Amino acid sequence: MKVIVADHSGFCFGVEKAINTAFSEGKDNENTIYTLGPIIHNKQAVNRLENHDIKAIDNLSEVNAGTVIIRSHGVSKKAYDEANEKNINLIDATCPFVKKIQNIVKEYKKKGYNIVIIGNPDHPEVIGINGWSNDESYIVKTKDDVEKVPFMDKMCIVVQTTMSVSLYLELTEMLEKKAKDVVKFNTICSATKDRQQAAKNLSKEVDAMIIVGGYHSSNTQKLVEICKKEKPNTTFHIEVAHELPINILKRYETVGLTAGASTPKWIIDEVINELKNL
Ligand code: SF4
């Protein structure tokens, strides 16, 4: 079997930076280090961090002092204020792409614009971005959601970094008809765009596609959707090597592989080795 790995698969620079920050803080610190939410959406990587005394907490109310790392998804302004009040040593590993969106939202909210975020309302990145508009943004991820947005004078549109470009274009076109003055920012990060494009291209060339990444990882799910458009019956999403559908894959000559931004290299390597053994 021939295995082709897509370009740009695996850790993006934002996730890599957050993980490295966590490990280096953990090394220099005798006490437990906390991360506000799991530092990446990957169970196996989070377990590895826990073995280095780096633990995820859900809320700042769970600690009164110590060091807390803000993960790449970023947080709302309230979290910075709360950490300040409590004297928590906050280490900010928010990805610069996410920081940029937070700054846009802060600036345009101040200028009197209504903020519209194209994204998943339950995703921590979107919850954090919304926090920079006093939780007053409209959050849309479907055409139905856009229908519910009222007409307004001023609208500022931003998009979650891991959304697909096609969804952004489709929903923006509809949103533009809902305000007199619209400013829009395509804030999908380049790492995501490159990874999605490479996955799409590769899925056209192979018999089957394997997507490696956490089941809760938004950008991994997007990769699955993109590949399924090309390979509806032969796209497989797995988290770890032993989940490979070996009996099905044996039938194919060429298998493509890509991985989400939060999939560690050691997990990708295990999957590649398993496939090469077929
Ligand atoms: S996917 Fe993009 S925005 Fe998200 S952490 Fe990676 S580089 Fe940053």
Description:
The protein has helices spanning 13-28, 43-51, 77-86, 96-110, 124-131, 143-147, 165-175, 190-205, 218-230, 246-249, 265-276; strands at 2-5, 33-36, 54-57, 67-70, 89-92, 114-118, 138-140, 152-159, 179-184, 208-212, 235-238, 254-259. Helix content is 43%, strand content 21%. By secondary structure, the protein is of the alpha/beta class. The protein has three domains: 2-10 and 190-276, 4-hydroxy-3-methylbut-2-enyl diphosphate reductase, catalytic domain (Cobalt-precorrin-4 Transmethylase, domain 1), CATH 3.40.1010; 13-95, Rossmann fold (3-Layer(aba) Sandwich); 97-184, 3-Layer(aba) Sandwich (Cobalt-precorrin-4 Transmethylase, domain 1). The longest helix has 16 residues, at 13-28. α9 (218-230) links the parallel β10 (208-212) and β11 (235-238). The chain is flat, with a radius of gyration of 20 Å. It binds iron/sulfur cluster.
Write the layout of secondary structure elements.
Blueprint: E1 2-5, H1 13-28, E2 33-36, H2 43-51, E3 54-57, E4 67-70, H3 77-86, E5 89-92, H4 96-110, E6 114-118, H5 124-131, E7 138-140, H6 143-147, E8 152-159, H7 165-175, E9 179-184, H8 190-205, E10 208-212, H9 218-230, E11 235-238, H10 246-249, E12 254-259, H11 265-276
Parallel strand pairs: 1-12, 2-3, 2-4, 4-5, 6-7, 6-8, 8-9, 10-11, 10-12
Bound molecules: iron/sulfur cluster.
